[in-house]
């Protein structure tokens, strides 16, 4: 076991400054890997012209973004060209395992990112990458470490897919039972939001009332703080009012605070709805389509009041809610597994890489 610097065991190639006048989005030439393309794994910008061969990237090459968030990803987007502010890592020492390096580098990149001062965007230099210092065990041990972490990652990804499939199952069941609520192809009774609900905006939460332990305080996209006091003490639906996620919906139960970044159902004017059904109905309607993007994205109560809502028989809504409860039980088990896997991964990362 020895201590080395990344620059001693790897070659680092910084991207080339290709001329933007030769860029196109008509798929002429080769894809050009820019910062945003590393994470998503593909590029829709192409370069038409000659290029130095060393900047040709193949599947499996390790890339690092050098502006904004510093991330390492294995490229799987086929032949492409390496643009500036992205670099390629190539192992030159046979005693180094690529899988081990792929787990080790991101930890150090995050530490560099956290310590890097910035005015607008954080920048990473090749010199700093080369200067990353770490303990290098023998190659067999490296492979065993990488295999263990890869297994945890694969199980984690599988659990995420399971969770997504359960979400799709709920959507499918809703469609099967209630059809398309926008055209009401199952001919259920219909009422407007104004006939069914009294909407209200939340209230501003003073910074002195924001605490570490207290009641959940909802903003425009879920719980934003904890509060000394609560605004409501009954089950309801909260709708994001401002921000990039305005129009998102969620249920809440018990004592909570709702900030002025959200709208909520203050009063149900009748007993037409099961809350679980109503939540899924509102998701399908998709309130984000009511957003005004002239400034900061926002929605108002008016379109929610004017919107028509289907009213299937309550027994049918309750049947759907029972189905969702079964799915939620499975989702809870998956979430518990995800949390345990994440804890295990962090523990092993600390053990292996410090």
Automatic annotation (TrEMBL):
**Mind listing the GO biological process terms from this record?**
DNA restriction-modification system
Question: Which PANTHER family does the UniProt entry name for this protein?
Answer: TYPE I RESTRICTION ENZYME MJAVIII SPECIFICITY SUBUNIT, TYPE-1 RESTRICTION ENZYME ECOKI SPECIFICITY PROTEIN
According to the UniProt entry, its GO molecular function terms are: DNA binding
Record has DNA-binding as a keyword = yes
Q: Tell me the organism.
A: Streptococcus pneumoniae
Ranges for domain Type I restriction modification DNA specificity: 2-157, 198-341
Tagged with keyword Nuclease: no
Annotated protein name in UniProt: Type I restriction-modification system subunit S
| Pfam families, sorted | Methylase_S
Keywords, A to Z, come to: DNA-binding, Restriction system
Q: Which family does it belong to?
A: Belongs to the type-I restriction system S methylase family.
The lineage, from the top, is: Bacteria, Bacillati, Bacillota, Bacilli, Lactobacillales
């Amino acid at each position: 076991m020895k201590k080395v610097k990344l620059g001693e065991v790897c070659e680092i190639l910084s991207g080339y400054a290709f001329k933007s006048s030769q860029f196109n989005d008509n798929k002429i030439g080769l894809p050009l890997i820019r910062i945003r393309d590393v994470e998503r794994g593909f590029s829709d910008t192409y370069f038409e012209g000659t290029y130095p061969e060393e900047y040709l990237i193949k599947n499996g090459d390790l890339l690092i973004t050098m502006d904004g968030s510093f991330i390492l990803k294995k490229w799987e987007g086929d032949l492409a060209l390496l643009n500036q502010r992205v670099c390629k890592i190539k192992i030159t020492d046979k005693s180094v395992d690529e899988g081990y390096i792929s787990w080790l580098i991101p930890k150090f990149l995050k530490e560099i990112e956290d310590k890097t001062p910035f005015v607008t965007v954080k920048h990473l230099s090749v010199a700093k990458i080369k200067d990353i210092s770490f303990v290098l065990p023998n190659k067999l041990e490296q492979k065993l470490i990488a295999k263990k972490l890869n297994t945890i990652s694969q199980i984690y990804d599988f659990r995420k897919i399971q969770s997504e499939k359960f979400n799709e199952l709920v959507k499918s069941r809703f469609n099967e039972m209630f059809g398309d609520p926008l055209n009401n192809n199952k001919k259920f009774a219909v009422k407007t939001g104004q006939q069914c609900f009294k909407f209200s905006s939340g209230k501003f939460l003073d910074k002195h009332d924001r605490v570490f332990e207290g009641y959940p305080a909802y903003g425009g996209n879920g719980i934003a703080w904890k509060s000394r006091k609560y605004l409501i003490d009954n089950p309801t639906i909260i709708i994001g009012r401002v921000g990039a996620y305005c129009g998102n919906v969620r249920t809440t139960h018990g004592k909570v605070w709702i900030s002025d970044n959200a709208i909520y159902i203050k009063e149900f004017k009748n007993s037409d709805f099961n809350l679980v059904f109503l939540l899924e109905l509102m998701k399908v309607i998709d309130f984000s389509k009511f957003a005004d993007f002239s400034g900061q994205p926002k929605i108002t109560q008016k379109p929610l009041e004017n919107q028509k809502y289907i009213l299937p028989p309550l027994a049918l809504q309750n049947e759907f809610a029972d189905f969702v409860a079964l799915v939620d039980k499975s989702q809870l088990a998956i979430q518990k597994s995800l949390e345990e896997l994440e804890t295990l991964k962090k523990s092993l990362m600390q053990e292996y890489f410090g």
